[in-house]
Design brief:
single chain, 6 strands, 5 helices
Length: about 130
């Protein structure tokens, strides 16, 4: 078996850089989703509170296969606007107004999320000396 000097170190450096840069890229994507959700929604904006409190909801969580981050409508009723509500008989009371989901879909379908992740990967490669 042939071994090349420095390969393990190079992959370790790339892995560490990817972990950090992909998390930062997902934060940028989440912030863009929040901006899109605040700007383009179909709920009635009476007080402005939900629109004002639509934001990134924490820090990214990184596992071996995923980087996740929440975008929330951080009001006591934001979840009900996003998911809707039902009566005890399971009939719909408030229909879902998927303002967060729809904003994320628009960003992913429009290529914005992929572009941010591509930038993060390029930064990681540069940091690890692969570019």
């Amino acid at each position: 078996m042939a071994r090349f000097a420095g390969v393990d170190e190079a992959f370790s450096a790339l892995d560490a850089a990817l972990t950090e840069e992909l998390a930062e890229g997902m934060v940028r994507v989440a912030e863009a989703v929040a901006v899109e959700a605040r700007a383009n929604h179909d709920y009635q904006n009476r007080s402005g509170a939900l629109q004002e409190r639509t934001m990134v909801g924490g820090v990214p969580t990184t596992t071996a296969n995923h980087v996740t981050i929440k975008v929330v409508g951080d009001t006591r009723y934001g979840k009900y606007i996003e998911e809707g509500t039902k009566n005890k008989d399971e009939s719909e009371r408030i229909r879902p107004r998927r303002f967060l989901e729809n904003a994320a879909t628009r960003l992913f379908d429009g290529g914005r999320a992929a572009a941010e992740i591509g930038i993060a990967m390029d930064r990681a490669a540069s940091r690890a000396g692969w570019k």
